[in-house]
Design goal:
The complex is a heterodimer of chains A (985) and B (193).
Chain A: E1 18-22, E2 25-29, H1 35-41, E3 48-49, E4 56-57, E5 70-73, E6 80-84, E7 94-98, H2 124-128, H3 135-147, E8 162-174, H4 178-189, E9 194-197, H5 206-209, H6 215-227, E10 231-234, E11 237-243, E12 247-252, E13 268-280, E14 284-286, E15 299-301, H7 302-310, E16 319-324, H8 331-338, E17 342-348, H9 355-364, E18 367-370, E19 373-378, E20 385-389, E21 395-399, E22 402-406, E23 409-411, E24 424-426, E25 431-433, E26 441-443, H10 453-470, E27 504-506, E28 511-512, H11 513-521, H12 527-534, H13 547-558, H14 562-565, H15 579-583, H16 600-605, E29 609-613, E30 616-621, H17 629-642, E31 644-648, E32 654-658, H18 662-669, E33 682-688, E34 694-704, E35 707-711, H19 717-731, E36 738-741, E37 746-752, H20 756-761, E38 780-785, E39 789-794, E40 803-809, H21 813-823, E41 829-831, H22 834-843, H23 876-879, H24 882-885, E42 890-897, E43 909-912, E44 924-932, E45 937-945, E46 954-959, E47 964-971
Parallel strand pairs in A: 1-7, 8-9, 8-13, 9-10, 13-26, 15-22, 16-17, 16-22, 17-18, 31-41
Antiparallel strand pairs in A: 1-2, 3-4, 5-6, 5-7, 11-12, 12-13, 14-23, 19-20, 20-21, 24-25, 27-28, 29-30, 31-37, 32-35, 32-36, 33-34, 34-35, 37-40, 38-39, 39-40, 42-45, 42-47, 43-44, 43-46, 44-45, 46-47
Helix pairs in contact in A: 4-6, 4-10, 7-8, 8-9, 11-12, 11-13, 17-22
Chain B: E1 24-27, E2 32-37, H1 43-54, E3 64-67, E4 70-74, E5 79-84, H2 90-98, E6 103-106, E7 111-117, H3 121-125, E8 143-148, E9 151-159, E10 163-169, H4 173-184
Antiparallel strand pairs in B: 1-7, 2-5, 2-6, 3-4, 4-5, 7-10, 8-9, 9-10
The chains are: A alpha+beta (985), B alpha+beta (193).
């Protein structure tokens, strides 16, 4: 049935029809409809069940404040719970289902909660489910979650894209009603950069909803704004937070009004708007009146009734009663009459409402009841009649299917409070208006409590001019149409006398007048306590329709003024924001930056398995067909020990240091000595933190008189750079040292193994001598390779073998690896990954990440002799503290299992044999453990109390987490070639 | 020994350009880059040397100046990035011109250079960069060191097309380029990937 669609009017495209479904039933609407207006046009009034009592609920509002009409939108991966039907733009194929009902909306088993309402009052959970405590997780919580709750989130990955973006402007205007449009136009004409954000699709605000005689002005203003080059209109964009430095967060619903986002477009876009100044013109939200049965479907805010008639061409009922305490609602009677809705009565709670009210009733042919209130409603799942208490107290029923209510208007002050400025009570409009606003923000129009169109225009225009002028843009006065006089006179009515357990203050959270009374009775007088105790003002609508009524009722109960009672502060976001929008592009592949070394594609081609090392993706091993990871690693290790392997070590941090003071600088940042390092040589360096613990290690080579290149570990590259910059900029700014990262500039490949020199000989240009004399262990040279290509060669060894690191400009890295593989076929060249690298360094006893964990000292690592006694260096004084040089501290040692077949688990605790496995007996832990193909069994490094002094002892490696408990023998940390003969090869 | 030519490989997985009327994204190859730095005491001498050889003043604010086939970009206090389209080895030619004092470091391979141009270049970059590229805030030969999607980069504007060059560490190039293409997809829906 579509009997509620008016024959004409509204911003809808009647020539086109859209199909949609609600709870499995098919309906039709038009472009321009919201889901709410299309449902109302189709005669659907019951749209949801309430949160706690599962009471039938209808559509209360026509905007973002909607507390009742929450639906699940879409299905499968695109299912979006808690969508407000009043904001959902209709599209063809839209699928919506109601929430929080079982098994169906019309027949909801949980609605028996209504019968239990006396038991389910505020604080019910805290009081009832306390005992027994063990029932909470298994019984109470799951039960509550099933019974009380909102929609279900999708369980599949979101198929849509989201974006973050940044925009800048001189003037940000929030809201495109009459005030915002005037402000944007005045500022925009000055040439200032203006961004106008409107959460709606349509600009003009209540000019459309109230069928304002000058509604055409909005279209003209919009056309002019669209033509101004420095003005950006952002529709469907909700500014939801105000942050420091003129930063505003806004959510643009780019494709929410479409079934599927078009290619290349995100579903939503999160904007960070940086604005020099801001004009808040967010309008106002109408307050419901509080009386028993005020939540029955068919009870609707008067302003929303006008919206549905004027903007959507929908009659929200057939026979109406209007119940109000103010003059703004009077226009509703004329609109209803014009829409063919019979207005049975105007119930005005004011004893002397004035001539306007009486005239409005007379014009509509409605009975005029002043000093009267609606005190009850009836009807099952939709309104059938209201009970009115007259000025004399006499009660009578008036049949109607629509009750338009207005308790006055609340300025939308939320954004004005995000910097902590409390709103202040304005007695004349009986509402809170913005107090101290965030820097650079001015508030105009209804958001400032100026409710007439005339003041919205004039204030908006003035603010636009003033704001532009403050930014140095000369703006001219705006010519504005004359608006008819509007009265906003109000006499507050916070609750109807006698209202109780079905007089809802917060519809979304099912909080009634009775709950507020209970909160007061139990001592929760403060508004913050009231909120926590009753849950009032929580969830998706954040109390937009309920907060002011609640605090006024509390004020009445406690005998304080509303101003004294105060209000809770509002924090971002003003509207719910999907996590996906906050994440933006940062999901999947874009989750975080990935750095690829120069040989990445080559390694991919070889079927390498990759591992994250910091931000880098490194080849972990290179399995051949049929090999598992262990077989691959064993083969790679053997290749290095027996022939030659190549490994991309580009990821190690490389810092280029130049200047006359570099040697002196190295003396200060490294613990060991540097002054006597000749050109063409590299040296191992140990870097301490100021507190004496080891920061990082690596080699630094001297390439020229004033030119060095330092290497760091992969993971600490950024940290070491930061440390060096700090040392230079803050500690020794006078030093002539220039540094820059060259990590990405040079593709650096380790070429390790007995055949490494022979392999390099085939690519290094012949004029460069690779002999032991010319390039000994720890030698460094600038060379050319492959016929004149500049390169660097370092004779360094992490594996303990004859080994080199060769560096070429990064663009040639991929090619260099391929050339080495081609040239080294007969030499047994084999690529090796980080896993084999780890085995090789553990066999050689080199500490790495697990040992350099920020808790170890040079003494702990057996490197005390590196601490120079002839110079000062960072960390020297603190490293000498007795507790840091205590020989009982855990020190580096090697470990082998007593049973050669046993596995040593990394992370295992070390205990003496025969003692209890308790923390007090803990001697240390295994830091690194691997299967060594070289030794045919497991070997490990670890930190054990006393360190080298325990060599020869048998300890327990105890790992209760993975169930290992094996005897191990303490050895020296260097397992392989302790004399170091091979690397001098 | 036979000559074994090394082949230059792009750091981008999809190095081919994105071309559309709205926005174009290209990897710029063939340009040399080097950093030039000095201590404050030696700054006047360096400025003088550059003026003598290139006829330009090294910028002391975030600006770019061009001298012949070379350009100097401010890259921090007493630090500049030099780009050159000349064939001669930049590191060597700089050293010959400015003498032994200043630090000169080849960055040709350390950075990947991406050019973003076209009427929708600003709108594309707004999805990644946190800085204002409006003509009133950022004009040709302006430069900025900033961060986009957690990647440090330097950007400068070439002309009013507008065209921008973005220099970033080579290892991040593929990640950033992919994000850039995604950001441009709204304006060039048929673009890869």
């Amino acid at each position: 049935m579509s009997g509620f669609r008016l024959p004409q009017g509204g911003l809808i495209d009647r020539d086109r029809s859209l199909r949609f479904s609600f709870d499995g039933k098919s309906y039709r609407g038009h472009p321009g409809d919201t889901l709410a207006s299309a449902l109302l046009a189709s005669g659907v009034r019951l749209v949801g069940r309430s949160f706690k009592y599962h009471r039938p609920r209808g559509i209360l509002s026509a905007g973002p404040e909607e507390p009742n009409a929450l639906v699940e939108l879409g299905r499968g991966a695109r299912r979006e719970p808690n969508s407000r039907a009043t904001l959902v733009e209709l599209y063809d194929g839209l699928i919506a289902v109601s929430q929080n009902r079982f098994p169906s909306l019309r027949f909801d088993l949980m609605s028996m909660n209504t019968l239990l309402a006396p038991l389910l009052s505020a604080g019910f959970y805290y009081k009832t489910f306390m005992w027994p405590a063990s029932f909470w997780e298994k019984f109470y919580e799951p039960m509550i979650r099933r019974a009380a709750g909102l929609g279900r989130a999708a369980t599949e990955p979101d198929p849509d894209a989201y974006e973050n973006a940044t925009a800048f402007c001189d003037v940000l205007v929030i809201g495109a009603g009459p005030a915002g449009l005037a402000a944007a136009l005045a500022a925009g004409r000055s040439g200032a950069r203006v961004i106008l954000c409107e959460q709606d699709r349509v600009l003009g605000g209540r000019l459309h909803d109230d069928r304002h005689p000058e509604v055409g002005w909005a279209d003209r203003a919009e056309a002019e704004l669209a033509a101004l080059p420095e003005v950006t209109i952002m529709r469907r964009t909700q500014v939801f937070g105000v942050y420091d430095g003129g930063t505003y967060a806004a959510l643009e619903r780019v494709a929410d009004h479409l079934l599927v986002p078009p290619p290349g477009l995100p579903r939503q876009r999160l904007w960070r708007i940086i604005a020099r100044r801001c004009i808040l013109a967010a309008g106002a939200i109408e307050r419901p009146l509080v009386f028993d049965g005020n939540d029955r479907p068919g009870v609707m805010l008067a302003g929303a009734v006008r919206s549905y008639i004027n903007r959507y061409g929908v009659a929200p009922g057939r026979r109406a009663v209007v119940f109000a305490n103010n003059d703004s609602a009077l226009a509703t009677l004329a609109d209803l009459t014009r829409a063919g809705v019979r207005v049975a009565a105007l119930v005005d709670s004011r004893p002397q409402p004035g001539a306007g009210a009486e005239a409005a009733a007379a014009a509509a042919g409605a009975e005029f009841l002043s000093g009267a209130v609606v005190c009850g409603t009836s009807g099952g799942q939709g309104l059938r009649a209201v009970t009115v208490a007259g000025a004399d107290g006499a009660r009578r029923r008036i049949s109607c299917d629509l009750l338009a209510i207005s308790g006055g208007w609340n300025p939308s002050v939320q954004l004005a409070t995000h910097h902590g400025g409390r709103p202040v009570w304005d007695e004349t409009i009986a509402a809170l208006v913005p107090g101290a606003t965030p820097p650079g923000m001015s508030v105009v129009g209804a958001a400032a409590g100026q409710f007439t169109t005339q003041t919205a225009w004039s204030e908006g225009a003035q603010a636009g001019i003033a704001t532009a002028a403050a930014g140095g843009f000369a703006a001219a006065p705006l010519e504005l149409p004359a608006a008819p006089l509007e009265s906003t006179a109000i006499v507050p009515l916070w609750q109807v006398a006698g209202a109780g357990g079905t007089a809802f203050v917060d519809f979304q959270n099912d909080v009634t007048v009775k709950d507020i009374r209970l909160a007061k009775q139990e001592g929760f007088h403060a508004v913050e306590h009231l909120k926590r105790y009753t849950t009032l003002g929580m969830a998706t609508d954040q109390g937009k329709t309920s907060n002011v009524n609640a605090l006024a009722i509390m004020a009445g109960l406690t005998g304080r003024s509303i101003a004294e009672t105060g209000t809770t502060l509002l924090r971002p976001p003003v509207q719910p924001v999907a996590i996906g929008a906050l994440a933006g592009q940062h999901r999947g592949r874009e989750f975080r930056p990935v750095r690829l070394p120069p040989t990445h594609r080559w390694a991919e081609g070889l079927g390498a398995v990759f591992i994250d090392a910091g931000q880098w993706l490194r080849a972990q091993w290179y399995p051949r067909p049929g090999e598992d990871w262990q077989a691959s690693v064993n083969r790679e290790v053997r290749a290095v020990r027996e022939k030659v392997g190549i490994c991309d070590v580009t990821t190690l941090g490389k810092i280029d240091l130049q200047g006359t003071d570099v040697a002196e600088f190295l003396e200060l940042v490294y613990a060991n000595g540097w002054k006597n390092l000749p050109v063409g040589r590299a040296r191992y360096g140990l870097m301490l933190r100021e507190d004496g613990f080891v920061l990082d290690d690596g080699t630094t080579a001297r390439l020229g008189e004033q030119h060095y290149v330092m290497t760091t570990t992969t993971v600490n590259a950024g940290r070491v750079m930061q440390h060096l910059e700090f040392c230079h900029q803050v500690l020794w700014p006078e030093a002539d040292v220039q540094m820059i990262s060259v990590t990405d500039q040079w593709a650096q490949l380790a070429v390790a193994g007995p055949n490494s020199r022979a392999l390099l000989r085939r690519i290094v240009d012949p004029e460069f001598d690779l002999g032991n004399q010319a390039l000994p262990y720890m030698g460094a040279a600038a060379i050319t390779i492959c016929g004149g290509q500049k390169a660097r060669l370092f004779r360094l060894s992490f594996s303990g073998e004859l080994a080199y690191e060769i560096a070429a400009p990064a663009r040639f890295g991929d090619s260099l690896a391929r050339v080495l593989m081609e040239q080294g076929g007969d030499l047994g060249v084999t690529p090796y990954g980080t896993e084999a690298l780890g085995v090789l360094r553990i066999e050689k006893g080199h500490p790495a990440g697990p040992e350099l964990n920020g808790q170890t000292t040079a003494h702990d690592l057996g490197m005390a002799k590196l601490l120079s006694k002839r110079k000062d260096f960072i960390g020297r004084a603190m490293a000498a503290r007795p507790a840091l040089t205590d020989t009982a501290r855990p020190g580096l040692a090697g470990f082998r299992p007593v049973d050669p077949a046993a596995i040593i688990p990394a992370g295992a605790h070390l205990l003496r044999q025969g003692v209890a496995a308790i923390a007090a007996e803990d001697l240390g832990w295994i830091t690194s453990a691997v299967y060594s193909a070289t030794f045919g069994g497991w070997i490990a490094l670890g930190m054990v109390a006393g360190g080298a002094a325990r060599i020869g002892e048998t300890l327990r490696a105890y790992d209760p987490l993975r169930g290992h408990d094996i005897p191990v023998t303490v050895t020296a940390p260097v397992f392989y070639d302790a004399a170091g003969e091979r690397l001098h090869g | 020994m036979a000559e074994l030519p090394l082949r230059a490989v792009s750091p981008l997985h999809h190095p081919r350009p994105l071309e559309s009327a709205a926005v174009a994204i290209n990897e710029m190859t063939g340009l040399q880059m080097a950093s030039l730095a000095t201590g404050p005491a030696a700054r006047p001498a360096l400025i003088e040397a550059v003026r003598r050889h290139w006829g330009v003043d090294l910028p002391l604010t975030p600006r770019r100046v061009t001298g012949g086939s070379d350009a100097f970009l401010w890259a921090g206090p007493d630090r500049w990035m030099v780009t050159s389209s000349a064939p001669a080895d930049l590191e060597q030619s700089l050293r010959a011109s400015v003498g032994a004092g200043p630090a000169i470091t080849d960055q040709t391979d350390g950075r990947c250079l991406l050019r973003v141009s076209g009427p929708k270049a600003r709108a594309t970059l707004a999805k990644l960069l946190p800085i204002d590229l409006h003509p009133r805030a950022f004009a040709p030969n302006h430069t900025a060191l900033t961060v986009a999607i957690h990647v440090n980069l330097q950007i400068w504007q070439l002309d009013d097309t507008p065209a921008y060059d973005i220099s970033l560490f080579r290892g991040y190039a593929d990640y950033f380029h992919h994000a850039l293409i995604e950001a441009a997809a709204e304006f060039a829906p048929n673009a890869h990937p």
